[in-house]
Each structure stands twice: as C-alpha cells, then as structure tokens.
UniProtKB/TrEMBL annotation:
The lineage of its organism: Bacteria, Pseudomonadati, Pseudomonadota, Betaproteobacteria, Burkholderiales. It comes from Caballeronia calidae. InterPro entries: Sig_transdc_resp-reg_C-effctor (IPR016032), WH-like_DNA-bd_sf (IPR036388). This is OmpR/PhoB-type domain-containing protein. One of its GO terms (molecular function) is DNA binding. GO terms for biological process: regulation of DNA-templated transcription. Transmembrane segments: none annotated.
C-alpha cells in the first residue's frame, strides 16, 4: 500500500484497483473520474471493506471479519451475516467496475481483497 501525500486536506480513503475510491469516513464507494455514481455502504460493509483495504492481498479469517463486521456482537448466525455483507460489497464494487474481481473467498479460511490499494487524500467537495 502506498501513501499519496501530495494532496492535502479533504477526505481520506483508498483507491481500490484503479477505478474505485472508497471514503472510509463517510462510508461510500465511487468510480474515479465519474465512471460510476456513489454507492453508500452500511456500517458493517464499511468496516469490512476498511479491513480489506488495510490488508490487501492478505487472508482475513472468517472469525476476524465477523468480529469486525458485528463489532464483537452476537455470533449466532454470524457466518450467514458475513456472507450477506460480502455479497453486498461484491455487488457494489461490481456495479462500479464490472470487469474486475475485488474480493476472493479462500475455502474454509476466509476472504481476501485481491486488488492493489493506494491510500489517498482528495480535496473536499
């Protein structure tokens, strides 16, 4: 992960791949250069995508992602909840960039973000 420090002020977040900006504070994703509209993420989706963005190409276990997504909440049905969150994230990212796969499932182990990530600060709107 690289840091883009030449742009000051404004929002901070991550560029996923080469086409998606993820605003970690506001919880939305959007195509870069107006390639797609803004998609609002719920709190759980934002937490999980932020964890992925901080550890690109790294396996994040189901249990780790469940703790992040559910904020250490109840675990009954947690794997199903995580599957729904991942499905919704994949759908949102696909709507912006249908030509790329961003989240891969590693059977019996967890998930990984399989796209390069660049930390970015952009000027305020």
């Amino acid at each position: 992960m690289t840091t883009e420090s030449s742009v000051s002020g404004g929002q901070s977040g991550f560029i996923l791949g080469s086409r998606i900006f993820f605003d970690t504070g506001a919880g939305w994703v959007q195509g870069i250069n107006g390639t797609a509209g803004r998609i609002e993420l719920d709190t759980r989706m934002t937490r999980v995508l932020a964890a992925f963005a901080c550890s690109p190409f790294s396996l994040l276990s189901f249990e780790h992602l469940i703790r992040i997504a559910l904020d250490n909440g109840p675990v009954q049905g947690a794997h199903h909840e995580l599957s729904q969150i991942i499905r919704a994230l994949r759908h949102a990212l696909h709507n912006i960039d249908p030509s790329s796969i961003y989240i891969a499932r590693i059977p019996r182990l967890g998930y990984a973000l399989v796209a390069p990530v660049t930390e970015q600060r952009i000027p305020g709107e």
